[in-house]
Amino acid sequence: MLVAEDDDQADGADGEDAAQRTPGGGQGEETRADRFFRQLAADDSPETVEAVRALLTRWEKLGGWIGHGAGQVTTSAFLMLGQAGAPGRGIWPLTLYPGTGRGGTEVVFQHLAAREPFTDRALRAEFLRRLNELEGVDLPEGKLELRPSFRLSVLEKDRNRELFAETLAWFRDCWENREAA
Predict the structure, then answer these.
(1) For residue range 86-114, what is the model confidence (pLDDT) as tens digits?
(2) Contacts made by residues 57-63, CB under 8 angstroms, sequence distance 24+
(3) Angle CA(75)–CA(169)–CA(64) in degrees, nearest 5?
(4) 69, 32 in Cβ contact below 8 A?
(5) For residue 88, what are the contacts with CB-CB under 8 A and spacing of at least 6?
(6) The pTM is what?
(7) Contact (Cβ atoms closer than 8 angstroms) between residue 137 and residue 94
C-alpha cells in the first residue's frame, strides 16, 4: 500500500515527498484505504462513495497509483503518477478528502506550478478549463497558484465521471510526454 502523511499536507509539504511504501494492515487491522472509505461513507451518499471507488480504479488503469494519508481524523487519497518516495519523479493532480467539513477534491495547482510540465501556466489553465466542464464545478482562474476544491458528489453524474476520466487521461499524457515538449 502507498501512503502519504496528511499532517505534512497541512503544513505545505507535498504528497510526492511524503509518499512511501508501507505494509498493509495486519489481520483485523483497518488499512488507510479502508479508513478513507469508512470516513467517506460516514458523510457522503452511497452514490458518491461508488463514484469515488470507480474514479480510483480508473486512475489505476491509467497507470497511476493511490497514496493514502496517515491522518486518523481525516484520511486523504492522493492520485499519484511516477515513483513513490523519489523526489522529482512523481506528480499528483488531486487529493481527495472525505467528510462534509474539509471533504472534497482538492486541485493542487500550487504544487503543480513547481513540476514540469505544469510550470507552464497555460497547461494549468487548460487543466482548470477541463475541470470546469464538469457540471457543478466552477474554479476561478485566479486560483491557478492555490489549491481550490470542489465536492466529490459532482462525480455522481455519469457525464461528469466521463469528463473527469478524460481530464485525468489528458493530465497523465501531459506528464508522460513532458520530456518531448
Answers:
(1) 666 789 999 999 986 556 999 999 999 99
(2) 58/165, 58/168, 59/168, 62/168, 62/169, 62/172, 63/172
(3) 45
(4) yes
(5) none
(6) 0.84
(7) no
